[in-house]
Amino acid sequence: MTDGETADGDDGMSDGLQVELFHPESDREPGDTNIQKYGFDIHPVVFPVALAIIALFIAVTVVLGADAAGVYEDIFNFINNRFGWFYILAVNVFIVTILYFAISKYGNIRIGGVEAEKEFSDFSWMAMLFSAGMGIGLMFFSVSEPMYYFQNVPGFYEAQPETSAAGVAALTQTFFHWGFSPWAIYGLVGLGLAFFSFNRGLPLTFRSIFWPLLGDRIYGWPGHVIDLVTVFATLFGLATSLGLGVAQVNRGMSYVGGNILGIVDVPTGTVPQILLIAGITAIATLSVAAGLENGVRRLSTINLYLMLLLLGFLLVVGPTVYILGGLVSGLGSYLGNFASLSFFTGTIGEGGGTVTAWTVFYWGWWIAWSPFVGMFIARISKGRTVREFVLGVLFLPALFSFVWLATFGGSALFLELQGAGGVLGPYNAEGQTVAMFAMLDQFPLGALSGILATLLVVTFFVTSSDSGSLVIDHLTSGGKHDVPKTQRIFWAVTEGAVAAILLYGGGLGALQTAAITTGLPFAVILCLMCYTVYLGLSNEYEILESEAFSDRIEDMTEAGDVDVVRTSRETVTDIRESDDAQSSD
């Protein structure tokens, strides 16, 4: 079966059952008004308007320069100062909601319908989850963020800077920012998109989540506006991260080649970084052109293997006992203080600076990125039950993040607390981009591990670009699951071009601030989405438990179409195609 056929889920009988009993009564289909020309398959409104918005924002940001940066910064600070409490409260609502869906009666509902099969193995699914989610962020912040808290202890904790107590506080706060909370946001969006697309046959775009409230109006301007905002947040979030992230690659190559190996002086600056963007974009274009199965999945799997190799290497040559002890202490502190940390705003007493500068920033960033990551997660999750989906998305990446952060952040803390040093100095002198490389340099084979870390950063950027291109493809093609290769290549190249132009024009930082600002309206949308997903799951469960559904299955069983397995808790837990249908495959 080809990638396109798999994506569209042409399962014959099972799709017929799903369409007959669960799809809404509507004459509309994903992409039914699309324009198909020159190798493109585009939505007649979203695609051209999105391009116009992209061009306008690039022009305004580059031409106005510092003035645009000032405006974006003022808006960002206003939102953080006035609505930081809302971000914090909303994320807790998302956590409770997605856990409820998993442990309730809705947990047995299968994404794609009662007989939908998994499109990817569990390992491939996890690899793509992690590559699209926050792998690159862990590479950037796993050392630099604990080092910041080690010197600037958050007000929530009672600890003196640069002490062992400050080390525990640093790991705890870092665990909090990279643990369950962001994955609850991604999981909620991914579940909503997957359910309404695969179970209801609606477009794989953000507009579909609002079908219970808008009905066919999702195909009109309300839906267009929702998708346009999503395209904006996705493209500019990816472009700015690509542009800012190459600074770490550039600095890493320079640090390893000059400071560690002492054999080559790699230049740093705008021109080398633009060349790096061009190289990364070229690789991403080849990968995305190969498709989800042959390109993105394979590269994501390679990514995860490289990450495990670097993690295992540091666990062996680093302070192993200290790392494991730090993992247990940090995890215990995180779980013990989770409720208090989750609702801590810093409004009363000290600590507001850390909340505003880090926690609210992160929550806004995760929410702004949730359409991108959530849509990609939805695209790869067909065939899993709601419970499998939530447990996989919420817990497994978070647990891996804890191990990663304890290994890299814990190793850096070990060096500083044991008197060896070597991390804080370069970190304070040259910034966050060198923190990981400075830490790796203190252990055996520092040059080799530094090269591996640089390679890993590059491959993570490639997979993020791949994932983003596929997501924007879906958004600008009316929610179709399978998009022409030409269109995939177009958006991959566009991402790189936007990043390069903004880097050259000095507008990357400003536009990143603007992209994060979209987190506020998305937070409101996500709160509303909790209700719409509940309505969808509730309706599906009622149909599955209804007599009409049971009678329909009985009729199909008597006709030899399916075999039905019953339990006391569910009307139907498994439907299998008959031997004749299997042999015909």
Question: What CATH architecture label applies?
Answer: Up-down Bundle
Overall CATH class:
Mainly Alpha
At the fold tier of CATH, the topology name is Amino acid/polyamine transporter I
Structural class by secondary-structure content: mainly alpha
Q: Identify the overall geometry.
A: globular
What's the β-strand tally? 4
What is the makeup of the main sheet? 2 strands, antiparallel
| Amount of beta strand | under 5%
- How many helices? The count is 24
Structurally, how many domains make up the residues? 1
Major sheet: order of its strands?
Answer: 1-2
Q: Portion of residues in helices? A: over 70%
Distance separating the two termini: 10 Å
Overall average pLDDT: 81
- Low-pLDDT parts are 1-14, 563-585
Give the radius of gyration: 24 Å
Structure summary:
A hairpin with a 2-residue loop joins strand 1 (about 35) and strand 2 (about 40). This protein has one domain (about 5-520): Amino acid/polyamine transporter I (Up-down Bundle). It is about 75% helix and about 0% strand.
List the helices and strands and how they pair.
Layout: H1 3-8, H2 13-22, E1 35-37, E2 40-42, H3 46-64, H4 66-103, H5 122-133, H6 135-151, H7 164-178, H8 180-199, H9 211-214, H10 221-260, H11 270-317, H12 320-336, H13 338-342, H14 352-379, H15 386-394, H16 396-417, H17 424-430, H18 435-440, H19 446-476, H20 485-505, H21 508-517, H22 519-545, H23 547-558, E3 562-565, E4 574-577, H24 579-584
Antiparallel strand pairs: 1-2, 3-4
